Amino acid sequence: MVVAVAALAIPVLMFVVAGVITYREIEAQAEERIARTLDLLYTNVRTTFENQYLIAANVAGLLDDFGSDADIRANEEKLHERLENLVGRLPQVEDVWVLDAEGRPLVSAKIYPLPAGFGYADRAYFAALRDGQARVISERLRGRVKDVDFFQYTERREKADGSFNGAIAISIHPSYFSEQFGRASDAANFTAALIRADGEILARYPAIGPGTRLGPQTGFIRTTATHPEEGGYTSGSGVVDGVERIVRYRRIPDLPLYVVHGYAVGTIRQAWIERMASQLIFGLPATLALFVLAVVASRRAVQEHDALARLREEQIRRASAEDSLRQAQKMNAVGQLTAGIAHDFNNLLTGIGGALEMIRRRTVQPSPDVERFVELGRNGVARAATLTQRLLAFSRQQPLQIEAVDANRLVTGMSELLRRTLGEKVRIETVLGGGLWRAKADAAQLESAVLNLAINGRDAMPDGGVLTIETANTHLDDAYAAANVEVTPGQYVLLAVSDTGTGMAPEIIARAFEPFFTTKQRGQGTGLGLSMTFGYVKQIGGHLKIYSEIGHGTTVKIYLPRAMGEAESSAEKTVPPVARMKAGPVVLVVEDDPVVREFAVSACRELGCAVHQAGSGAEALAVLDANADIALLFTDIGLPGSMNGRQLADAATARRPVLKVLFTTGYTANAIVHHGMLDPGVNFIGKPFSINALSAKIKSMGF
Predict the structure, then answer these.
(1) Please, which residues have CB within 8 angstroms of residue 677's CB and are 6 or more apart in sequence?
(2) Is 210 exposed, middle or buried (0-12, 13-18, 19+ CB in 10 A)?
(3) How far is CA 690 from CA 133, 344, 383, 500, in A?
(4) Residues 6+ apart with CB under 8 A from 203
(5) How many CB atoms lie within 10 A of CB 325?
(6) Per-residue model confidence (pLDDT) at position 88
(7) Residue 259 bridge partners (DSSP)
(8) If residue 196 lies in a helix (H) or strand (E), which one and from where to where?
(9) Span 514-534, pLDDT tens digits
(10) What is the enclosing helix (H) or strand (E) of 158?
């Protein structure tokens, strides 16, 4: 009888306890989700404003070239063109203005010539700059020349004696942030906002009109007053809909701006109710069954306890084995996934990007909206192509153009980029080795690796410090190779990046190259930088090693294989400018995807080429035999049937030895790439490609 009563009472008690635990678990999951979403929002906003810093710095540099305000007005057209080139492709920037000390505009990035008779001396941000502030974020404004909403990021201009000389004002679309926020979460009643410290709402999702400001009694104003950098509170009512929300915020460094994210409390309650209801549906029949079987269960308790103990041991053993197997297969799985999507994805991007480019070329004097939307599409294609390239780099399957690179020249050429990227707190020193050997490397990927390491060094020195880049000839002997996996003894070119930062503990060094592992704060790193650098260095047969000590900084050493007798990098050669192609060669385009083939044919014709086309290797050979004037075979590598692009090229050049061949593909781990490196003498252009890139490639082949 006692067992039967216990069989009823214990499930009820367990259900109550489970309800409490489940609610706390759902709360914890919501907090974690809020933190991840806020990290994403903060990273996007911070990156956007870092771009504004760079834009303002570049504008200031351009103004230095022109001197006084009179010189700027005299060269308005030239400076307008440079400003337009600087920001024309940035979707968040509405315009860039240069104002004189009286608030009158001197030049604009989007308007030329400037209309006369208006100024901005009455704007609050201009008065604040005039009174001595270095940077000011304005409230939401309405344009006086263009009837659009925006807010201004402004910086003070000063004369040589430090007196006020006007302003650099960057007009930013609030809708840009609203769209970015809208992509961050699909939770019900999700909100995100960009808010000034005084409560002025600059941008929000869901969007609201200008002029909305949070009052002094709101949770935001009261909480930020006591916790100015980051924090949170529970809002009893929202700005628009009155929904109770958990609100978290974080301040943008050096600016009176907060990224704010709100998560509806009702979402947590609804999730708890649904989960407990599902447990009750299954729990009630189980309780009744338990009551019926209680007597039998008590008799077999000892036997079942022993069986469960053995089962737990087996589960633990299997879980451990499965974890080891997953860790070993992680990189291989990413590589297989990348290989599966890269080809078709890049074909799609080629068609989309090509269509946009042809639209732009075919449209005579397009409207600003048309031009802007075409540019937005082209930017999206470029970002998607970059993502595919990074996936390939992560899995050591990116195509590399291996050349003999002068590391000293590469480091010297990056000095200006590093100085602007790392900021004034970091002093850069270089120690370049004399008589340095040339290294086997892909110059572009090596620059990216050095930049990644430099940024990591900067982040390890929050209060500033010294970043040293050193090059030298070195030799790795058999003993070193035996102690380090995947190292081949021999001669190498050493490129070392050292910082004077916080250093790394041994356990951190051991995991530094793991994908997605990072010691940085949320929103400040993805954990892919070192992993991608490690994959690239290993792909070219090199070696990477970290030396670090807590409190004494870190040194990352890249060992690049020595180039024995290779020609100098194409980036280092002095190539005479190629004359504009008046009439291109006769081209045979071979591509099985009809969309990509249509763009490739149109692109060649745009360059003045006569074009024949084919969809397979057999069809291409028939066209080649029928047209003796074909001078260039432009072929995809992955073709249907028994003949791929490389086999087609071999058959075509056997029939016509003077025929030149240009390969293209969306995924290069195939006939013209071995161990991630292009075969010598192969002319290749990756998908997606632009008309300008195709023109440059054809010219480089001697046409």
Answers:
(1) 399, 400, 402, 540
(2) middle
(3) 45, 17, 14, 43
(4) 174, 175, 176, 177, 178, 181, 193, 194
(5) 10
(6) 87
(7) 194, 250
(8) strand 191-196
(9) 665 666 655 555 455 676 777
(10) strand 149-158
